[in-house]
Amino acid sequence: MIKLTIVPVSILLFSMVVCASQDDILMGDFEGKSYEDWKVEGTAFGRKPATGTLPGQDVVSGFKGRGLANSFLGGNEATGTLTSPEFQIKSNYINFLIGGGKSKGTRIDLLNGDGHYIMSIASGNQSESLEWASWDTSGRIGKWARLRIVDESTGEHILVDHIYRSDTPKVAPLLYLQKAAHGRAKTSISISLLKEQQQNVW
Ligand SMILES: [Ca+2]
Protein backbone atom coordinates (compact mmCIF):
# COMPACT_ATOMS: atom_id res chain seq x y z
CA MET A 1 0.00 0.00 0.00
CA ILE A 2 1.23 3.46 -0.84
CA LYS A 3 1.46 5.74 2.18
CA LEU A 4 0.67 9.38 1.59
CA THR A 5 2.31 12.06 3.68
CA ILE A 6 0.31 15.24 4.14
CA VAL A 7 2.50 18.34 4.27
CA PRO A 8 0.88 21.43 5.75
CA VAL A 9 0.34 24.21 3.23
CA SER A 10 2.18 26.66 5.48
CA ILE A 11 5.38 24.57 5.24
CA LEU A 12 5.08 24.37 1.46
CA LEU A 13 4.65 28.12 1.16
CA PHE A 14 7.64 28.74 3.44
CA SER A 15 9.76 26.42 1.32
CA MET A 16 8.77 28.26 -1.82
CA VAL A 17 9.75 31.60 -0.30
CA VAL A 18 13.14 30.23 0.81
CA CYS A 19 13.79 28.77 -2.63
CA ALA A 20 12.86 32.03 -4.34
CA SER A 21 15.48 33.96 -2.40
CA GLN A 22 18.33 31.46 -2.51
CA ASP A 23 19.62 32.85 -5.79
CA ASP A 24 19.72 36.46 -4.56
CA ILE A 25 23.28 37.62 -3.90
CA LEU A 26 23.85 41.01 -2.35
CA MET A 27 26.52 43.04 -4.12
CA GLY A 28 26.28 46.37 -2.32
CA ASP A 29 24.07 47.40 0.58
CA PHE A 30 26.33 50.16 1.95
CA GLU A 31 25.58 49.26 5.56
CA GLY A 32 29.15 49.23 6.83
CA LYS A 33 31.48 51.89 8.22
CA SER A 34 33.42 51.92 4.97
CA TYR A 35 32.86 51.07 1.30
CA GLU A 36 34.82 47.88 1.99
CA ASP A 37 36.05 46.37 -1.28
CA TRP A 38 34.53 49.07 -3.49
CA LYS A 39 37.14 51.45 -4.88
CA VAL A 40 36.47 55.11 -4.05
CA GLU A 41 37.66 57.94 -6.29
CA GLY A 42 36.97 61.65 -5.95
CA THR A 43 35.20 63.28 -3.02
CA ALA A 44 31.47 63.11 -3.77
CA PHE A 45 30.84 59.79 -2.00
CA GLY A 46 33.11 60.45 0.99
CA ARG A 47 35.15 57.67 2.61
CA LYS A 48 32.12 55.80 3.95
CA PRO A 49 28.45 55.34 3.06
CA ALA A 50 25.99 58.05 4.01
CA THR A 51 23.41 57.22 6.66
CA GLY A 52 20.69 59.12 4.80
CA THR A 53 20.26 62.80 4.08
CA LEU A 54 23.43 64.90 3.93
CA PRO A 55 23.74 68.56 4.97
CA GLY A 56 21.92 70.89 2.59
CA GLN A 57 20.07 68.04 0.89
CA ASP A 58 16.33 67.45 0.66
CA VAL A 59 15.15 64.41 2.63
CA VAL A 60 16.45 61.15 1.13
CA SER A 61 14.05 58.20 1.24
CA GLY A 62 13.55 54.78 -0.27
CA PHE A 63 16.91 53.24 0.66
CA LYS A 64 17.15 50.04 2.69
CA GLY A 65 18.71 49.68 6.11
CA ARG A 66 20.94 52.35 7.58
CA GLY A 67 23.14 53.41 4.70
CA LEU A 68 23.45 54.13 0.99
CA ALA A 69 25.84 55.57 -1.58
CA ASN A 70 25.02 59.29 -1.75
CA SER A 71 27.20 61.59 -3.86
CA PHE A 72 25.90 64.83 -2.36
CA LEU A 73 28.80 65.08 0.08
CA GLY A 74 30.14 68.55 -0.59
CA GLY A 75 27.01 69.43 -2.56
CA ASN A 76 26.26 68.93 -6.24
CA GLU A 77 29.64 70.36 -7.20
CA ALA A 78 31.54 67.34 -5.88
CA THR A 79 32.36 64.47 -8.25
CA GLY A 80 33.60 60.93 -7.84
CA THR A 81 33.08 57.24 -8.56
CA LEU A 82 32.54 53.99 -6.68
CA THR A 83 33.75 50.86 -8.48
CA SER A 84 32.93 47.34 -7.37
CA PRO A 85 35.34 44.42 -7.35
CA GLU A 86 35.25 42.27 -10.45
CA PHE A 87 32.59 39.57 -10.35
CA GLN A 88 31.34 36.83 -12.62
CA ILE A 89 27.80 37.26 -13.90
CA LYS A 90 25.87 34.23 -12.67
CA SER A 91 22.29 35.44 -12.57
CA ASN A 92 19.72 36.62 -15.04
CA TYR A 93 19.24 40.05 -13.46
CA ILE A 94 20.90 42.76 -11.41
CA ASN A 95 18.47 44.78 -9.32
CA PHE A 96 19.22 48.03 -7.50
CA LEU A 97 17.69 51.16 -6.01
CA ILE A 98 18.59 54.42 -7.72
CA GLY A 99 17.69 58.09 -7.37
CA GLY A 100 19.10 61.54 -7.95
CA GLY A 101 19.91 63.36 -11.15
CA LYS A 102 18.71 62.56 -14.63
CA SER A 103 21.73 63.46 -16.72
CA LYS A 104 24.22 60.91 -17.95
CA GLY A 105 26.74 62.57 -15.67
CA THR A 106 25.09 60.67 -12.83
CA ARG A 107 24.68 57.00 -13.69
CA ILE A 108 25.52 53.37 -13.00
CA ASP A 109 27.73 51.54 -15.48
CA LEU A 110 28.09 47.81 -15.91
CA LEU A 111 31.56 47.34 -17.37
CA ASN A 112 33.16 44.24 -18.84
CA GLY A 113 36.52 42.89 -17.77
CA ASP A 114 38.33 45.33 -20.05
CA GLY A 115 36.47 48.32 -18.64
CA HIS A 116 34.21 48.77 -21.64
CA TYR A 117 30.53 49.49 -21.25
CA ILE A 118 28.00 46.72 -21.22
CA MET A 119 25.11 48.78 -19.93
CA SER A 120 24.56 52.13 -18.32
CA ILE A 121 21.63 53.85 -16.71
CA ALA A 122 20.97 57.45 -15.80
CA SER A 123 18.42 57.55 -13.04
CA GLY A 124 16.31 60.45 -14.13
CA ASN A 125 13.74 60.44 -11.35
CA GLN A 126 15.21 63.79 -10.37
CA SER A 127 14.30 63.33 -6.74
CA GLU A 128 15.79 62.15 -3.47
CA SER A 129 13.49 59.11 -3.43
CA LEU A 130 15.17 55.91 -4.64
CA GLU A 131 13.31 53.58 -7.00
CA TRP A 132 13.97 50.04 -8.21
CA ALA A 133 15.60 49.31 -11.53
CA SER A 134 16.62 45.98 -13.09
CA TRP A 135 19.11 44.95 -15.73
CA ASP A 136 18.71 41.79 -17.78
CA THR A 137 22.11 40.09 -17.70
CA SER A 138 20.89 36.68 -18.89
CA GLY A 139 22.84 36.98 -22.13
CA ARG A 140 26.13 37.55 -20.31
CA ILE A 141 26.25 34.75 -17.78
CA GLY A 142 29.81 33.59 -17.21
CA LYS A 143 31.32 36.94 -18.23
CA TRP A 144 33.34 39.04 -15.80
CA ALA A 145 32.18 42.54 -14.97
CA ARG A 146 32.33 45.48 -12.59
CA LEU A 147 29.77 48.00 -11.44
CA ARG A 148 30.68 51.67 -11.40
CA ILE A 149 28.55 54.33 -9.75
CA VAL A 150 29.42 57.62 -11.39
CA ASP A 151 28.93 61.26 -10.43
CA GLU A 152 30.81 63.38 -12.93
CA SER A 153 28.22 66.16 -12.88
CA THR A 154 28.74 69.41 -11.01
CA GLY A 155 25.01 70.11 -11.07
CA GLU A 156 23.47 66.82 -9.93
CA HIS A 157 24.18 63.86 -7.67
CA ILE A 158 23.28 60.16 -7.51
CA LEU A 159 21.83 57.85 -4.86
CA VAL A 160 22.27 54.06 -5.00
CA ASP A 161 21.49 51.24 -2.61
CA HIS A 162 20.84 47.53 -2.29
CA ILE A 163 22.39 46.16 -5.45
CA TYR A 164 21.83 42.43 -5.78
CA ARG A 165 22.02 39.66 -8.32
CA SER A 166 18.94 37.56 -8.80
CA ASP A 167 17.13 35.29 -11.19
CA THR A 168 14.05 37.44 -10.65
CA PRO A 169 13.76 41.06 -11.87
CA LYS A 170 12.53 43.49 -9.25
CA VAL A 171 10.81 45.55 -11.93
CA ALA A 172 10.47 45.24 -15.70
CA PRO A 173 14.08 45.05 -16.94
CA LEU A 174 15.43 48.07 -18.72
CA LEU A 175 15.80 47.91 -22.45
CA TYR A 176 18.18 49.88 -24.57
CA LEU A 177 17.02 53.45 -24.81
CA GLN A 178 13.94 52.63 -22.81
CA LYS A 179 12.19 55.71 -21.61
CA ALA A 180 9.22 55.92 -19.32
CA ALA A 181 7.70 59.18 -18.24
CA HIS A 182 4.70 60.01 -16.17
CA GLY A 183 3.47 62.73 -13.91
CA ARG A 184 4.64 66.28 -13.94
CA ALA A 185 7.96 67.16 -15.47
CA LYS A 186 9.68 67.71 -12.16
CA THR A 187 8.78 64.29 -10.84
CA SER A 188 8.78 62.31 -14.06
CA ILE A 189 10.74 59.12 -14.52
CA SER A 190 13.03 59.03 -17.49
CA ILE A 191 15.28 55.99 -17.57
CA SER A 192 17.52 55.68 -20.54
CA LEU A 193 20.56 53.74 -21.59
CA LEU A 194 23.07 55.91 -23.26
CA LYS A 195 23.07 55.76 -27.03
CA GLU A 196 26.76 55.84 -27.62
CA GLN A 197 27.37 53.01 -25.18
CA GLN A 198 25.45 50.49 -27.25
CA GLN A 199 28.41 50.37 -29.61
CA ASN A 200 30.59 48.91 -26.90
CA VAL A 201 28.40 45.98 -25.95
CA TRP A 202 30.14 42.59 -26.06
CA1 LIG B 1 21.53 50.18 2.54
Question: How does this structure look, described?
Answer:
This protein is mainly beta and 202 residues long. The chain has a single domain (25-200), classed as Jelly Rolls (Sandwich), CATH 2.60.120. Helix content is 6%, strand content 32%. It contains one helix and eleven strands, in the order αβββββββββββ. Strands 2, 4, 5, 7, 8 and 10 form a six-stranded antiparallel sheet that branches. A hairpin with a 4-residue loop joins strand 7 (106-112) and strand 8 (117-122). The model is unreliable at 9-20 and 176-202 (pLDDT under 50).
Defining traits:
6% helix, Jelly Rolls, 202 residues, binds calcium ion, mainly beta, 5-stranded antiparallel sheet, globular, 6-stranded antiparallel sheet, disordered C terminus
